[in-house]
Amino acid sequence: MATTTSPSEGSSLLSEREQVAERLLAASARHSFDPDTELDWDAPLVPGLWFMPAHLVSLYGTPLWERMSEEQRIELSRHESASIASAGIWFEIILMQLLSRHIYAMDPRTGHVRYALTEVADECRHSKMFARLLTKLETPWYGPSGTTRFLGRIMKTTAPTPAAFMATLLAEEILDRTQRATFPDESVQPLLRGITRIHVIEEARHVRYAREELRRQMATAPAWERAYTRLTSGESAVVVSRSLISPKVYGAVGLDIGEALREARASEHRRETLRWSAEKLVEFLEEIGVIHGRAERARWRQAGLL
Ligand SMILES: [Fe+2]
Ligand SMILES: [Fe+2]
Prior knowledge:
Blueprint: H1 7-30, H2 35-38, H3 63-67, H4 70-103, H5 111-137, H6 146-158, H7 161-182, H8 190-220, H9 223-243, H10 248-252, H11 257-266, H12 268-287, H13 294-302
Helix pairs in contact: 1-5, 1-8, 4-5, 4-6, 4-7, 5-8, 7-8, 7-9, 7-12, 9-13
Bound molecules: fe (ii) ion (2 copies).
């Protein structure tokens, strides 16, 4: 891992940063969506279709799952989908603030800043889309616990740049992997397929932007910022992985919350699904030196993502 950067390397990193931004701006101009007009919000939900692929539901394959009726399983997928959308809005609102902080003192004429503003606009549309989905699904607004929300409030206000991009990538890549499995799946509601398709297309650019910036940051940021990023990556992984599915979803479909939580945590299929969702991200974070050392790897394992 590079720890020092010469002036000429520094300026070539900057021009590379601009090249990436210009490519992303061109791609945004070609493929951006307005979910309000792109999706048919008035179409009724289709009876018998899932709200995410069955194998992505947290209890899939557990003894409890085997005892559930098909209707109850589909109902659980509706609430888990709402829980993920609620967590998605929470992540995106944090991300909009992190991006605004990142460009606060930068030259707004650069492609790098124009792309950050484009991404804020994307996330704004996404959060409105997820909020509209919650209304359509007629579920509660889930979202993380009060403690987690408090941790998020501290993180989004104080995290140094590389830690901010690491947290961004964490939320974006994990959701991206499951959404890529959702939109082509014919057993899933057309509305959910449409939403995940829009999100996957626009998030691919966000992932690129965050990966490139994090790679640069881990080569150029002050030593304490890089150390902070390594130390907090495992904590962020635990928070993100636990905030996706609210325990309240189990109660909402008539299951015992304690029993459902125990079965989901003991499920080898679930662990495998979580590991799969973070697989490419973990590989990248290892490559650029964010995940390294035994203690950090242990925390990632605890998050179920490694
Ligand atoms: Fe998004
Ligand atoms: Fe994003």
